Amino acid sequence: MNYSLLKTSRAALCGFLLLVALPICIQGQERNSGQQSELIAAAREIMVKARYCALITRGPSGRAEARTLDAFPPDANFVVWLGTNPRSRKVKAIRQHSRVTLYYFDRDSEAYVTLYGIAHLVNDPAMKTQWWKEEWKTFYPDRAKDYLLIRVTPEKLEVVDVKKGIVGDSKTWKPPAVVFSNGKAND
């Protein structure tokens, strides 16, 4: 038996296992503020690239209700603005239960963001002018009465971006997360 070849093979295998196992161990650790900044930047990129998100509310029966919306990119504090018809089911649901979930998925990047937050309905004319897309004018012919804003203030976000190596815990699959308080990410 060639012991030299066996030692070389064993060393190569150990090196390979270190390269594979090290990222898996790091995934389950607490993230520092630099890592949180990375997660926030990755989340913002996914959200902008995906453009559309699912707004998930709690319906009258207690069941989750999801619908696709054309969201604005998150602002500097990661607040997300959406537009809707004030007579829609989602508005009724938000009035009863303000906690919502936004879900963005980018298939090409194998990435997603789940943002948990508090929804507020905003009917201020100046804000409705600021948060407006011209391509929406066919949906909202009378912006004063047919258009309402939803502002989602973040509480927590989870992000996975396989191509960037941002993945969940190897055992539980719990994704990396950032918790917000007072509208800012906790460090």
In what range is the share of β-strand residues? Answer: 25-35%
- Stretches with pLDDT under 50, minimum 5 residues: 1-31
| Biggest beta sheet attributes | 8 strands, antiparallel
Total strand segments: 8
Percent helix range: 25-40%
Structural class comes to: alpha+beta
The end-to-end distance, rounded to whole angstroms, is: 56 Å
Give the overall form.
Answer: globular
Order of helices and strands: HHEEEHEEHHEEE
Number of helical regions:
5
Mean pLDDT value: 85
Radius of gyration: 22 Å
Tell me what the structure shows:
- With 187 residues, the chain is α+β, with helices and mostly antiparallel strands.
- It contains five helices and eight strands; from the N terminus they run ααβββαββααβββ.
- The protein has helices spanning 3-27, 33-50, 89-96, 125-130, 143-146; strands at residues 52-58, 64-70, 80-84, 99-106, 111-122, 148-161, 177-181, 184-185.
- Strands 1, 2, 3, 4, 5, 6, 7 and 8 form an eight-stranded antiparallel beta sheet that branches.
- β4 and β5 (111-122) form a beta hairpin.
- Residues 1-31 have low confidence and may be disordered.
